[in-house]
Protein: Phosphatase PAP2 family protein
Amino acid sequence: MSTTDGRASARAWWSARSRPARSWLADAGRIDQAVYEAVARTPTPGLDRGMSRLSRVADKSVLWVGTAGLLAAVGGRPGTRAAAQGLACVAVSSAVVNLAVKRVGRRQRPDREGASVPVGRHVVMPTSLSFPSGHSASAFAFATGVGYRLPAVGVPLHGLAGAVAYSRVHTGVHFPGDVVVGSMIGTVVAQLTTRATDRYLGSRGRTP
Structure:
């Protein structure tokens, strides 16, 4: 068999093996679009303003920086450590999402006008790629990082993180799949970051 024939055979083999995966991804994309459009069509006048405000205050992690400041101010040394851990997790997850994963996903933002998302929900449509959601990753990274140090505080913070993630779909700037994957990435990155922090502090003979 010639080299050309071998390459053609390899391409055919790979195409046959990858066809089910491509079909599954296409189906998942259609479900994602359908859920996005269903949220857009559902009248929620009582939620619209609140979701828009929450989405905006989470821009550039302002919400999490403010929460960290509050924790440090009222929580004493444990609160300060938890706040620092949460912000460190936000920084790492943001770098992972924006510098790596988004460039791989290459997903464009939803067609908000085409889906008829009510204007009252709108926030500024970001120019960055859509997948995964950086807001969701940062939200769950912060909640996970703080919760590792202060479990009781982590519970309401995870609720707030979930609301921030949903707000990105409600306002029409992300597909549901974007926020689900972003939330998962933020959680996993925060867990790895906290373990790395503990290992580093332990190697220096300090108690985290």
Notes: The longest helix spans residues 3-41. The domain at 3-203 is CATH 1.20.144.10 (Vanadium-containing Chloroperoxidase; domain 1). The mean pLDDT is 90.
